[in-house]
Amino acid sequence: MHQLATAGGGEKPLLALRDINMTFGGVRALKNVSFDVRPGEVHCLAGENGCGKSTLIKIITGVYRPADGASIEFDGETYSHMSPVTAQDRGIQVIWQDLALFPEMSVAENIAFQTVLGRWPKLVDYGRMRQIATDALARLGVTLDVDLPLKEYAIAQRQIVAIARALVGEARLVFMDEPTASLTQSETDHLLDIVRGLSASGVAVVFVSHRLAEVLEISSRITVLRDGALVGVYPAAGMTQSRITELMTGKTFDQQVRAKFRDGQPVVLDVKGLSRPGQFEDISLSVRRGETLGITGLLGAGRTELALTLFGMLKPASGTIALEGKPVRFSSNRDAIAAGVAYLSEDRLSLGLIQPQSIADNLVISSLDKILSGGLLSEDRKRSLVARWIADLGVKIGLQQDAISTLSGGNQQRVAIAKWLATDPKLLILDAPTVGVDVGARAGIFDIVARLAETGLAIILISDEVPEVYFNADRVLHMAQGRIVGSYDPRSASLAEIEGAVYA
């Protein structure tokens, strides 16, 4: 029985969808979904990856046309479908999870490029674009050099640019798809304040996030989808993270500390006094065979820079790195891969995987030597290698030759992990492996991590979400301002203790 909470108190919805159906290749992506948003409401759209959230948003914004019989009402006007132009004209804006930005263009051009669009060519007023961009960033309380190419900025700053671009127009309804995935806690808090400000000014916000604590903090109502169908619409008041998880997945998850004693195992990685000025300083740590070492801390703490140095993509100014007791100095990531180090990037969309390429090509790209036959690539060996890892990691796919972009975030991440496992590493570095991955898929990924550790693989698990490292690592290191400032054993330390230190 669905718990259906529609606009109450005589308040007419700003947006109301009724009987939305969508089919792709014979598969029903949405099944008779109804959905509404009130003026000025912060509404959460929740569900696992692949449940139909993005499809629903694309129907609302005119990217997809729903099956016959659908009704879309916006501010009193009814449509059988919307076009992208109509949606934008009515003030519907979307911040997509993949940001959809232009790395080679300046920050100003990314934020204000719509000012030069139209049916006829026009001269570009760069001064006006810079002013629009500066004003939009100021609204977010952020200062960036708007003349710099976007590629000069890290993921967190790019996310802010995407948000600023969405706020440039006269928005009445803003969809935010995982807007905080790459933000620090302080940046996230600031964004939530921005969302509250938008809501207070009458702008409706539909918030999509796998960080359920944010969902409960910011939303007034929560719409849950599962397998393309509406589970229900629920008031956020009184809701819990575990209850949302149960509604999204149809399952219950019992989180328990997985930490085990690994002191008797041989050391795989030994780092002493590693420094890189401006990024991290005097880092000393070790990882043993079968051990999962968690590293947490806010973005900007130097975690990713440390990982990139261990992977040979950055060079340390001082300090030593040893693998299985042998000193190593990597000139490139090729050297690191050859030595048995694998690195899963936090930026799956642009660095971890090649989205237009096939699932098979993405999986074998780091281990081409394993599918050679007589100096040529063997399609039979390729299919066999891909089939092995797809089955071993439980990746849900159609065909091996399908584009990786056709998979959900959780399944893409499993392919990204498989890509590195195919290289037979000694050390696997997982940098924010659950960014953009829903709660059900996260549990599956951490089950894989635990299984890999039991096979003897040394793992470094990096995350800014303290519960991830607390429940899934054998030891936890806290990094802040480029230094290791704390070390914890999850078997004796509490989650609240570590969170208090990290978020202080």
From TrEMBL:
Gene3D superfamilies associated with the record: P-loop containing nucleotide triphosphate hydrolases
Keyword Ribonucleoprotein: no
SMART domains on file: AAA (SM00382)
Recorded superkingdom: Bacteria
Keywords recorded for this protein, A-Z: ATP-binding, Cell membrane, Membrane, Nucleotide-binding, Plasmid, Repeat, Sugar transport, Translocase, Transport
GO molecular function: ATP binding
Keyword Metal-binding in record: no
InterPro entries xref list: AAA+_ATPase (IPR003593), ABC_carbohydrate_import_ATPase (IPR050107), ABC_transporter-like_ATP-bd (IPR003439), ABC_transporter-like_CS (IPR017871), P-loop_NTPase (IPR027417)
Pfam families the UniProt entry points to: ABC_tran
Domain (ABC transporter): residue spans on this chain: 15-252, 259-504
Family: Belongs to the ABC transporter superfamily.
Protein name listed in UniProt: Sugar ABC transporter ATP-binding protein
